[in-house]
Queue: 3 jobs
Job 1
Amino acid sequence: MSAGWFRRRFLPGEPLPAPRPPGPRASPVPYQRPRFLRGSCSSPGAAEASRRPDSRPVRSPARGRALPWNAGYAEIINAEKSEFNEDQAACGKLCIRRCEFGAEEEWLTLCPEEFLTGHYWALFDGHGGPAAAILAANTLHSCLRRQLEAVVEGLVATRPPMHLSGRCICPSDPQFVEEKGIKAEDLVIGALESAFQECDEVIGRELEASGQVGGCTALVAVSLQGKLYVANAGDSRAILVRRDEIRPLSSEFTPETERQRIQQLAFVYPELLAGEFTRLEFPRRLKGDDLGQKVLFRDHHMRGWSYKRVDKSDLKYPLIHGQGRQARLLGTLAVSRGLGDHQLRVLDTNIQLKPFLLSVPQVTVLDVDQLELQEDDVVVMATDGLWDVLSNEQVAWLVRSFLPGNQEDPHSLSAGWSSQVLEAGPDADTQHTGEGRRSHRGRAGVLR
Amino acid sequence: MSAGWFRRRFLPGEPLPAPRPPGPRASPVPYQRPRFLRGSCSSPGAAEASRRPDSRPVRSPARGRALPWNAGYAEIINAEKSEFNEDQAACGKLCIRRCEFGAEEEWLTLCPEEFLTGHYWALFDGHGGPAAAILAANTLHSCLRRQLEAVVEGLVATRPPMHLSGRCICPSDPQFVEEKGIKAEDLVIGALESAFQECDEVIGRELEASGQVGGCTALVAVSLQGKLYVANAGDSRAILVRRDEIRPLSSEFTPETERQRIQQLAFVYPELLAGEFTRLEFPRRLKGDDLGQKVLFRDHHMRGWSYKRVDKSDLKYPLIHGQGRQARLLGTLAVSRGLGDHQLRVLDTNIQLKPFLLSVPQVTVLDVDQLELQEDDVVVMATDGLWDVLSNEQVAWLVRSFLPGNQEDPHSLSAGWSSQVLEAGPDADTQHTGEGRRSHRGRAGVLR
């Protein structure tokens, strides 16, 4: 992506790119549930709860189907909100092949044998339709595999070489790499960052070709070479639950948490707001009676607050509006990072959301060996549907309560999760507002 | 500042602002040392050290002159590097007046009486001449006082009101403010942010008028209403030294720590590099032999590393180059935040550094009451000259070693500081490179 591309793509008045020749229209992305749910069941613990009138269908993997690391999985479809579950998930073994160098110092795929193996778990929280999440679940792991294969020589070196070929052009090259502190894990982080972007481009092309729309957040965990990488773009969350510790493995990216980045872009490119929005933040949307008053505000460069005298342009709809779960970007979207949404516009306008969205994840690295993880340490990954109704502490309590005595059963986490979340969900849910209740949905991958 | 202003100011091809009518040329900013050094002395402890051939002059306040909170101060002028000391300092009482509302709901300065008092300590590390640091030392506290006076009604309320006048236009206004979590300390943070920007504009105007150049970093501590605020723009550092704890109160802003922000701006506005620099980071500057090779790199969106095939444009000089103390922005500047530098250009080019520099500080807040600070807890503020040769732990050890038994003497910190830093400096200094030695200079304000 270049600045020129950004300007042509998003800014009015820039010369338009040459139109693509019309190709055959691709068929729509077919709706599906995660592959590992084939032959799935409602888990036994959930049976009683599911007879209650307010219960929602819960699915988890069939008893005989073990997920990597005996991970558990349960999903609750919110039938009130949409006909289809917009969320998706994927997991599996990650097989990275090594290709040997030929005499020309170019890749020769003479030896595409499995070389490094890891595991991959992913959750995609869809919005505006299920298509983006389905594409992400079908594609992101392949993008990641390709990105890792492209740097695999660096991954297995003691320290990544300056030149991927291993050739040392300048005698002090290894010293330069060491001074920058570049380690193999930085290549995995880079591969995750690139894979998310590549997948985002694939989704953009596929949805445009099939005439579909939508976007999704993405939360991915990858185990490789003794490390666990958690990459997050959106408002899902992963935590590590240990006997005496709850460790956050991700941060949420929402219009509120990324306010300064978003306001900064609107400052640099005011055209993106088309005169319809104000980039300033106020405690509430201003109205005529506020004109001429000095009110609390903050702009892109401010972490603190100040007062400004209200003029007419401050009465426009705010770029970021609402509080907590209700916070929206351009009145439309509750997340600020994710995949897809290439066609998303503010209702009844030509104002695009995509320029404000990042597909790049933030990546956290856990050194599994160094941490001396125990049998009952569990990583919990879930979309906002779960975290809106249960705190980290409540989830940790649930995990700790259904785990003991069930470690040997590969299905234990799915079963425990299904029944407990279903039980806890509606109760916890009532603590929220009416809107909160209606949009409740939960999805949880639990790794052990 | 608006985006239009930014584009007119920094981007080629944009319509130029109307030229200002030539005014009378202001006289140059007169050189001076901090006011509180009048009648200053070399402290007794430093006498022996100063007889050594490699010693440098040390100044600290005169014995009879107590600084707020009995703060100590010592400065070492690096005579090898420049004739004048480019660094500055300021401290004093901060008197914030309250102005009463009239019937028109406008400020009436009928009652400009002192209302809130606080204290202020500041260090300015100058470069390219002493003028910017002198102006900052003379100006920033006034900017801060003005900014605080403009919001004083909000400062003294239980919670800042939505409208500064206190008028409640919408019955749920207090609730909106509460939901955003806006507290009085956010107004002080906002005032510090605005004061730094205002001071930067003053410096820009004054230096342009007097035909001088230069810039400086700024590290400010303010005590107000039971809180200590530390605002930092640059690579100075403040720490709190307690009996059992060393707590960092600031982060350093350098081309390395702000790499992604700086690369992002170059991505958005490639014109700023005038085709002379590459925004990409490589472990070292590339050369002809690297052409066609795949080498380690990262771009603005990456925290990890990847490999790219080198093309000709990658051989340009890097936007950020060098490592650690040698890291430079556009080959010129070692800091990425500060005041001044409005005229600074890359040598023999028209490429400006100012668009890449931020004058906004990062602000840390300490709740002094809640922390239950003890008599021997000390805040140490110093420029990079000190931190380049002494670690946080070494400085804490020094403070803890010269403090006991001297608490009652207001001069104890200045004296202890002068002698100990002078003793420790040259030894520690020898751990650094030749360039490191030559540019060594230290400045330390110690609050107790």
Job 2
Amino acid sequence: MTSFFNDILTTIAERGRALIDFSGRERAARGGDLTELFEALLSERGEASGMAIAQEIFERYDALDEDARHQALDVLASAFGVDLEVSRAAAETFLDAPDDATGRALNIASEPRRQELFRRLNLAPDGTARLVAMREDLIDGLGGHPQWRPMDADFAHLFSSWFNRGFLVLRRIDWQTPAAILEKIIRYEAVHEIADWDDLRRRIDPPDRRLYAFFHPRLVDEPLIFVEVALTGDIPAAIGPVLADDREPIDPRTATVATFYSISNCQRGLKGVTFGSFLIKQVVAELSRELPSLRTFVTLSPIPSFADWLAGLAGQDDEAEGEVAIGESERASIADALAAREDARSPDAGLETSLTQLAAAYLLTERDRRARPRDPVARFHLGNGAILDRVNWAADDSPRGLGQSFGLMVNYRYEPDEIEANHEAYAHDGTVAAAPRVHRLARGRGVARRERTTA
Amino acid sequence: MTSFFNDILTTIAERGRALIDFSGRERAARGGDLTELFEALLSERGEASGMAIAQEIFERYDALDEDARHQALDVLASAFGVDLEVSRAAAETFLDAPDDATGRALNIASEPRRQELFRRLNLAPDGTARLVAMREDLIDGLGGHPQWRPMDADFAHLFSSWFNRGFLVLRRIDWQTPAAILEKIIRYEAVHEIADWDDLRRRIDPPDRRLYAFFHPRLVDEPLIFVEVALTGDIPAAIGPVLADDREPIDPRTATVATFYSISNCQRGLKGVTFGSFLIKQVVAELSRELPSLRTFVTLSPIPSFADWLAGLAGQDDEAEGEVAIGESERASIADALAAREDARSPDAGLETSLTQLAAAYLLTERDRRARPRDPVARFHLGNGAILDRVNWAADDSPRGLGQSFGLMVNYRYEPDEIEANHEAYAHDGTVAAAPRVHRLARGRGVARRERTTA
Amino acid sequence: MTSFFNDILTTIAERGRALIDFSGRERAARGGDLTELFEALLSERGEASGMAIAQEIFERYDALDEDARHQALDVLASAFGVDLEVSRAAAETFLDAPDDATGRALNIASEPRRQELFRRLNLAPDGTARLVAMREDLIDGLGGHPQWRPMDADFAHLFSSWFNRGFLVLRRIDWQTPAAILEKIIRYEAVHEIADWDDLRRRIDPPDRRLYAFFHPRLVDEPLIFVEVALTGDIPAAIGPVLADDREPIDPRTATVATFYSISNCQRGLKGVTFGSFLIKQVVAELSRELPSLRTFVTLSPIPSFADWLAGLAGQDDEAEGEVAIGESERASIADALAAREDARSPDAGLETSLTQLAAAYLLTERDRRARPRDPVARFHLGNGAILDRVNWAADDSPRGLGQSFGLMVNYRYEPDEIEANHEAYAHDGTVAAAPRVHRLARGRGVARRERTTA
Amino acid sequence: MTSFFNDILTTIAERGRALIDFSGRERAARGGDLTELFEALLSERGEASGMAIAQEIFERYDALDEDARHQALDVLASAFGVDLEVSRAAAETFLDAPDDATGRALNIASEPRRQELFRRLNLAPDGTARLVAMREDLIDGLGGHPQWRPMDADFAHLFSSWFNRGFLVLRRIDWQTPAAILEKIIRYEAVHEIADWDDLRRRIDPPDRRLYAFFHPRLVDEPLIFVEVALTGDIPAAIGPVLADDREPIDPRTATVATFYSISNCQRGLKGVTFGSFLIKQVVAELSRELPSLRTFVTLSPIPSFADWLAGLAGQDDEAEGEVAIGESERASIADALAAREDARSPDAGLETSLTQLAAAYLLTERDRRARPRDPVARFHLGNGAILDRVNWAADDSPRGLGQSFGLMVNYRYEPDEIEANHEAYAHDGTVAAAPRVHRLARGRGVARRERTTA
């Protein structure tokens, strides 16, 4: 099927052009403002000339300045939401005789009008990309426009369906990849900045380095999310050697460990659509198949919130509740560490025990309001079913690494056979799966082990 | 972008394999019956191991016989519909304070649980194709299981979103197309049967013949709908010369007319998702761009229901209401025509005036219960904004053509500048756009011209 | 590299068009007959406008009838051969002082002028294909034009360089292959005729059937040679079960034997350029890599000349020299066999011993004038280093099989570790590598075993 | 054909691997030194195991240091040249009876044995690239090894046949091109250095900039030659504005001039195989087709040898013969110009008339020993049939531009209708086609106009 299907896709680019030509013939008499065009797109005219109207809408929208775009979004938020009259009638009918049929009718009646509008906007050339861009505008203005929240949720709902993982395509990115894509990888890398093209090349060209991204067939030149992988003989305990520009590549067929050292989401407009968990599992599958010698799949991850948390803790008086406490004896040295952090210096080597114990305790016990781990990276990997495997001292001496976590990093381990059970325990009661050595560290801070341990 | 994106798609095939490998590792402890697996897929286990569970479900489902599949569909119909409790609460909340937020909440609460189940089933390898196949089973059993109707509507709703025209890819099918696709064209052709590979070749290989199909990126080797086009110098008045195996091809750059002489939907499982209107308009755009000499875009279409209608009319007594009536003087000759039809013979040449007038009157005036043209092909093209352009006598002497319409065929014309207005008038009050000559024919039966005429 | 390079090739088709456009601008003043154009192409005008002149030559040549083409070929044969004057001078210089430099100068001086002419003709759109077609004309007329032999050898020399195996691309042909290629497979199959598309599908679509072809980048839609392969559990002893339309495919991963049951050259114009040996070895390599369970690579081959040889032998009197003789006692039964052959009937079962012994003896001992095996298929496979492995009785009951060899077929075995030694022994003294069972058969006819045996 | 053929090429990469596997099985007993392997490759063993032996040769050769490689090349130069005995016999036979047949026999007999050796080396994976690399070694050592000259000529002869323009593929290079190719463009640019990736992007990504390269199907990731094109409204008179990083791109559909401002050969190992003329003409054809508004195709070219020539002239006494002379009155100012050149400074504005006249006179009259223009760039474009169109003052103020030609540059114009006549006149008697304004400049130096003028 391959080659024929390749051709199928090559016509996508051409199609855009065709649509323009065709719509040009239709468009002579088109007029009205954006609101009228929104209505027109939902009307019978929209059924006949949807492509042309959708294109017209985007062309006008793109030409607007920020204020005018906000006005357009206000219109979408206020006039294209749930039809209250229709919904009221359907709700009453349902409550009179609740069953699957009246329930479905209610579901249809209560669908915000925007949903169909968005689906028809997708007919325009590059419609999907333009809808994603429109949502970026929305997100940027959300702070000042809380009334847009339902519309934002509508976008998230729609995109979750369209960007269903079943429609995504995993693609390895390497030195044979077009520059137009590579340029975006440089731009979107959010964890360990890519300095320039040479730096990029060091991450994708050596035989023991991989970069995989998800793409969607309709967003042809836009990665959705990507992960960078180092193939190694041991689990890396620091990011420096992974990124060193003078390191010697190894033969990937001899590697036993695959380390995911950077994961970056690329599309702000797809916020709320989760790709990361699928990406990691898919890459584990790809690598397992290609390199049977691989035994271990881990991350090398930052602890973005650790230092802030510790700073808060250090500022509390002794009475403050919370499972983890700072002893009097170490207050001074922790103050030193916090001072070093301010100056982007490494903490004193003597602090290793204190800080690694505190980090372990922090990750195992501190929760957010929804009872999930307070650290966002921990939340992501533990939620995916990974195991908190190791806390690494002096692992990232970049200004960011020192500022976030005194240079500490963490390995989360993906153990295919345990992912499902870990995820379920985590989802059920917030259980954090952790290696014994992490529990041992936490015990040093008096944190009893309640959690399920996994080796 | 082209070439990189081609590669993106080639990984689709590989991905299926990878998923299997990976899920194989997860699956050891998997058990339970299909109902349990449906629930598992919607649970937190489903979040962690969705691919594996979805695959497991399809493997089991595929292995079932018809009865057991019907039981599975019964489970989906009864236990995975709208959650009545949750919906009731949301409906009451909404009625208390109806606004966009409570309306959206109601919309989400009343979504049938199947919808999320279907979205997760899509994670399986070939998930989309398998869901489409599952709906085929559903449609086949719908007559005996009216309780499946809401589920059928759920499928249609989901597929309308996934198969949004913005995600479809138009592709020309020719003699360079893989045999695996061509074989399906032969199988799916529903209007003028393709006898064998030589017959197929005559429809796709000569320079003045075209075949275009829509594809979806996830259903790589399955056309969704296709249209066959003849490029000619005049509007064809009969199908025979179009399909003749000894005809001389013309230089397509000299053609002025593109005739759509066959349109076939390929996927029963996508019933209710409309592709035809988009396909025709897209092909008009493609052809206009490639061949600027083309001026006229018409169909050569059957009138599937004409003879049945006329037989009914002939059986009525004079009092029967209805705009079109058969005069006493022609009852005998119409009886002859109906007898000829029984024997798959052509009607007598002397009947041309009667039958073409009756056909024009039929198409212009007869409506179904929803006030749309009674003839399904007319309904499709007129609904798309086409014009009823000409009624052709002795246009199709195949048994089917004689049986459906005494060998009459119709040209519908797509006039890009008028499509929108025609569609709107049709949608608004059922107005049929027709050429003056068609109105003249109908006047011969006493049918006054109420309709908007278009030249 | 893959995807970029794919694109490289897609431009080939476009290029042809571009050349035409460009040459069109150059061509206004072009004139003269073919002979003048040949000279022009070799002149300085040819350096500047080679593409246009080459295209002009082919357009004129294609428009000629057979007689006029023969005249053009006569011109090429007589006026564009070796430049005798220049060669004479170079030969004398060389003989005066023979060294590498004067030798090279002689080599250059004695190159027929056609060679450069052909190289420049290759500049035309589809130049390579058109040169191959021109040679087909030459071969067809060679019988009546012995003076074309040097020109024919020039073509063979040039094509051997251009179609160097290093430039060929092996490609699997299957049901995903474009119909335009498959149609040519049907047409070019020379051993076991392909009846229709269903028959073709049985040879390429089941998982245990393969078809591989060599292509050249410049002849994009023309296979050069192809081989059909059956993956089986045992070495097949007859062609019928291999081609049976109701057989059950096996899982290719369980196959231990790959049988090459048909090899067809496709391009008459490339006569003398050998592809077969490379093709078989390349396919052995491909299959070994994909299916490690394969242990045995054999052919199932006809013995095209056996029956003719035996008929000749039967017609001789006893005194005729030759190693193999027919005993008096079997003359009658062999006469029966020859009579059955005349009627396309199978020979009597009682003849199995006689005929298989005679076939073994024939293949082991009978030689042509150049001391190579007299049977052309044997010559090919033994020359490639294969082993004569088995003689099969009642192996091909088609009219052709009965007519050529009383229904007998042979397995030749390719044993990668022995190919080189077998080929060398064969090339050195004509030694035929054969399995002991074949020698045993031959001993039944009194043929002593001189040959190296290989198990 | 496109998509199937794409697939054909994708197998090239895989094939390399397959060959290795297969040859691995053959290679167990392989031994001997390089000379023995050369002989083996030409022997019957080579016919059976050519791929394996060729690969073995390259692996050993690649592992050698420079001295050892030179020894290997010495062997090829001395022992694999023309077979003197065989050639002598053939020469005598030919002289006895010189005709086409004995001439061809002589041609074959006198072919250096290396030619067949090279053809068989091409069987190795990446054989073509490795042969090209081997010739690079040869060229690098040619100064110290004059005995290699015949071998060098053999390489050139073979590569001229293999890299026949009919086998080359023109490919546009843009920002969608794989980084691996772009990196080579940066490296190979020989005229106006590409500083970094941003600089590269400015040359390939804006809509009014193009870069085209020739590729060969067997050297998949290596451009052979490329040309950079600027689409403009006027003929550029200086390189600065063309390369400026802050310039505004224009809509290419409004451009009337295409300027070839840089042409770079990429493969030293293909020295002597001419691509440039074909490349320019092909790009003219491509651009003409895509952008019908283009009317003028020119270069913006350096005059690499002008300053050196003028320095020589200035050093001569008055008696020196030569058509162009320096008057006494301008000796001082020319000395100034030469001094400025030494310091990489721009010459004084007052020198414009003198220097542009001298440049015109130089280009029109000065010849090398073979009576061709002394300036290599002039030789190339005039030889291709271009017209010397304009001499530009202050056109290139880079150190190289000032050093080569006091900052002067030249436009050569390609006028499709005149190319052939210009080329022929040039080839016949060295006539330089030049615009009247160039002749006027030269007349200022007393150079009479003998040349054909072209507007």
Job 3
Amino acid sequence: MASRRKSSRKVGLLLVGAGMRGLSLIPFLGRMPDVRIVGVADPIQERCQEFLEAAKQYSAEPIAVAGDFRELLVREDVDAVLATGPWNSHVPVCLAAMRAGKYAATEVGCTNSLEECWRLVNTSEETGMPCMMLENCCYGRKEMMVLNLVKKGMFGELIHAKCGYRHRLCQFLTGQNPHFRLDHNIHRNADLYLTHGVGPVMQWLGINRGNRFLTIRSTASKARGMEAYINTHDVTDKSLKGRRFAMGDVISSTLTCANGETVDIYHCVSLPGPYTRFGRLDGTLGCYSEEKGGVWLEGISEADKYDSLEAMYPRYEHPLWRKFLRSKINVEAFGHGGMDYLVLRAFIEAVQKREQPPIDTYDTATLLALSVLSEESVSLGGQPVTIPDFTCGKWLERKG
Amino acid sequence: MASRRKSSRKVGLLLVGAGMRGLSLIPFLGRMPDVRIVGVADPIQERCQEFLEAAKQYSAEPIAVAGDFRELLVREDVDAVLATGPWNSHVPVCLAAMRAGKYAATEVGCTNSLEECWRLVNTSEETGMPCMMLENCCYGRKEMMVLNLVKKGMFGELIHAKCGYRHRLCQFLTGQNPHFRLDHNIHRNADLYLTHGVGPVMQWLGINRGNRFLTIRSTASKARGMEAYINTHDVTDKSLKGRRFAMGDVISSTLTCANGETVDIYHCVSLPGPYTRFGRLDGTLGCYSEEKGGVWLEGISEADKYDSLEAMYPRYEHPLWRKFLRSKINVEAFGHGGMDYLVLRAFIEAVQKREQPPIDTYDTATLLALSVLSEESVSLGGQPVTIPDFTCGKWLERKG
């Protein structure tokens, strides 16, 4: 079922969604000599034109344009499809891509039903094509060093992790072009943006590879932040004045795992203050704290004092980052400190080798399902709800 | 019912429990010129003798000794009773004290049933005598500055708080004299030591004074830390080798409040790493982070950068601490950076003025109940459980 590709040819990509994220990938993809953007699709033609203009800086090769991505999907030179549009487009785009025999990758987002997640899994298994979430934080430098320490057993037995997303998006959501995320925040009370935090944690805990998530329970605080912002700032859409928001300013969730670990997740996109992802990992031999910027390891660290990440990198850098930093690639030119480059390369290389990507469809489905299940738990007053085993038992045999 | 006392006389104290905590109060109480330790009671006579020896350094006044505190309880020169013994003794001691017309204060701890909490409330209301938990963290310098900022409205509307207790007690619990807390950790799976974190948060959120706690849900990780420690260290009680511990290494809890705020609580006493209480407060105008050691306030702080606590103290120090630091009292000579002095003074002054203490019986009952309710939630798989209104509606009228 998988379409064959000539291995010496550049990997041909179709981007579905020419908004902010799609545009932001141009400098990254444009710098990869083995990648070519074959086509871009977006119902808003102005966006496609803007995309073409921006892409010219990097390549003179023509890029096909369409309003409906299906017009470009079956092209022989399309090897993979990137879903870079609004959240609600991600699953339909990936499903169509896999059915057309293409590799599928989705930008981070959320879903609305568990059925969407099962559709991804079922379609992937039927077609043999994978669907990878481009969760860039899995490739962050500190997150990967922590992963390296985990693999070396230096934290001992893992017990607990914390993660989250605190990033005030009030201005972003109510700016000149109201963002699609606004509707989700107005009508849905849940943690809809947890993958930046949970993605790396899934890798540390070996989820879907000898371990799995069992339950999630989510509690929402009251919602005041967006309304407070709209009442005190100039927003483009005046109808937002007095609008009520369903999404609590802070969503606190806890996951349980088959192997007994727990994970605390925090979500806040509507209150002012510094950005953080609250990363933390606790094991029987040490711990990591993103807030404190360091690692504490028994037998290595001084009592009550974290060793800074900077002090740890020389010895414990993840091999992927060590190679990345030694390469001639200008790390800083890539998004979010370089992690965007690495996550895209991981996908591209999977396409080239015709292999499963490191974040596979089971992982993607799991990450997407958590948003829906968070919503269910909140609606039940914080009751724990169960997380499906999207691997249907394969997690027991698969190794990390 | 309240026993009269001559206001010029020193406040006479009976300490029930001459173990580690009781002993540690001697230097603090000994330095207070308006306080006198009248009696000490402990079933273990050696402890009482050690207490008397230590107390001689501060005062030549005689201290009565008994195995059973009831022998000393009705003395006319006992104005107040401090429950400083094992956790399970706190409530019985305070009940007896109140019934004898004495002010009662309890060291931090936990309870085993909601009934114990209601007994405290009922007895206090019947006798008119209060029971104050000596939660020293309520008087911590940074916690009080945050309280000062809250009272000034500088965080805006409060939305969420975090708190916790991460303090590896493996050596402490398995040391020469097995500690009474060990049995609780062996047999109970719950957050039994949350008052250091929740105490200050209760004051920030005005709990029992226009607000109240509604529900708590707790999730426990697996328990590995104590066993790992015992297997790799020399412990006095060899029967602990191979002993299973019920208490998960990490207990994650979330509280909901009547006014819509939520509070995340973390508990870990069995894994290695630096001490922390994870304090955090989020509001519509700013936030506080203990981990980052600072405060961020809209209109005052630079984007994405906390102002350090040190930078904030000159302008925003709580008046109580400002007065404390300007006094001739050697702050550092008192426990835990000075907070122990302030919490004891708050109690002593309530006794002197025959007033309700700032942490009153309703607050004490609430703090104690959370441990029991955490245990119930864990046993129900993390289901939220309800928290009683110990004020029976008075919280609606009382102001902070």
